[in-house]
Write a structure and sequence with these properties.
GO molecular function: identical protein binding; pyrroline-5-carboxylate reductase activity
Helix content: 40-55%
Strand order of the largest sheet: 3-2-1-4-5-6-7-8
Domain Pyrroline-5-carboxylate reductase catalytic N-terminal: 31-125
Number of domains: 2
CATH class of the largest domain: Alpha Beta
Largest sheet: 8 strands, mixed
Number of strands: 8
Oligomer: single chain
Subcellular location: Cytoplasm
Binding site for NADPH: 83
Domain Pyrroline-5-carboxylate reductase dimerisation: 188-291
Distance between the termini: 41 Å
Number of helices: 14
């Protein structure tokens, strides 16, 4: 593990009570594996490491080539080209392959999956039913759908449990994933909605940030400065929604003063049907995710 990451882990690993110490030590003995070692897998692994929850020597990753394992090797995790080795060494197994590859991977590992394993799929479009049909009866299966900001531990994840997943499995997974960002549980149907809302929604936010910055550039502000302020504006607005618990409309209304700049700006956004357009975008992305899941 590089020195910067070690320093961050040591800083964050500071439990406050004997009970927390015992819980943390128990977790640090947990073995977590990733079949597939792409960007999202490494992001989840890094968040777990930064939290000090699991030791690097207890995190395993498999991928067909060394190139895909570079990030995990930087973390000083254990790496392999054997998917079966992940099952042999780990209790929590994340399936982080491309969706079209996953059925073949499931057939490969099925004979090694036991009741001790908790199998967590990160693959889009592969349903819990499909996962359970390709794995031994009674396998504890869950699905998660993370989004890109998990890479900076500020993501949003929706989790759905299969028929055999137990409460303690869900609680453990939520704890591990909470270090990547917000983690919410819901029925499996929410995963496609989450794709339209948050998976694709990240791109909507980027587009809005870009438009904000370009508006400022048009009015004379330097581009780099405008970009940073636009990003901070979105970050701060999101944080206020989460921390106050207020409906966005309430917070929006609080910014508007009679005859002021904000109400004039909002009028222009309403002329462009901003809300309707964004709702249509969420619907379009959700429907596309549902279509892909039926293939």
């Amino acid at each position: 593990m590089n020195s910067a990451l070690k320093e961050e882990v040591n800083k964050r690993y500071n439990p406050a009570s004997p009970w927390q110490v015992a819980e943390m030590e128990k977790l640090r003995e947990l073995r977590v594996g990733f079949i597939g070692a792409g960007r999202m897998a490494s992001a989840v692994a890094q968040a777990i490491l930064l939290a000090g929850e699991v030791q690097a020597v207890n995190i395993f990753a498999s991928a067909p080539s060394n190139r895909n394992l570079d990030k995990f090797q930087t973390f000083e995790c254990k790496t392999t080209h054997s998917n079966l080795e992940i099952l042999e060494n780990c209790t929590i197994v994340f399936l982080a392959t491309k969706p079209h590859v996953l059925p073949a991977v499931l057939r490969e590992i099925a004979s090694a999956v036991t009741k001790k394993h908790v199998v967590v799929s990160m693959a889009a479009g592969v349903t819990l039913q499909a996962l359970e049909e390709l794995l031994p009866t009674g396998t504890k299966v869950l699905r998660i759908m993370p989004n890109l900001p998990c890479v900076v531990q500020s993501g949003a994840i929706v989790l759905a449990r299969g028929t055999c997943a137990e409460e303690e499995d869900v609680a453990l997974l939520k704890r591990l994933l909470s270090h990547s960002g917000l983690c919410e549980e819901g029925p499996e149907s929410y995963i496609d909605i989450h794709t339209g809302l948050s998976g694709s929604g990240v791109a909507y936010a980027y587009m809005f940030a870009e438009a904000l910055a370009e508006g400022a550039v048009k009015m004379g502000m330097p581009g780099p400065m405008a970009q940073k302020i636009a990003a901070q504006t979105l970050l701060g607005a999101g944080r206020m929604i989460l921390e106050t618990g207020e409906h966005p409309a309430v917070l929006r209304s609080a910014v508007c003063t009679p005859g002021g700049t904000t109400i004039h700006a909002l009028h222009e956004l309403e002329k462009g049907s901003l809300r309707s357009t964004v709702m249509n975008a969420v619907e379009a992305a959700t429907c596309r995710a549902q279509t892909l899941g039926k293939r």
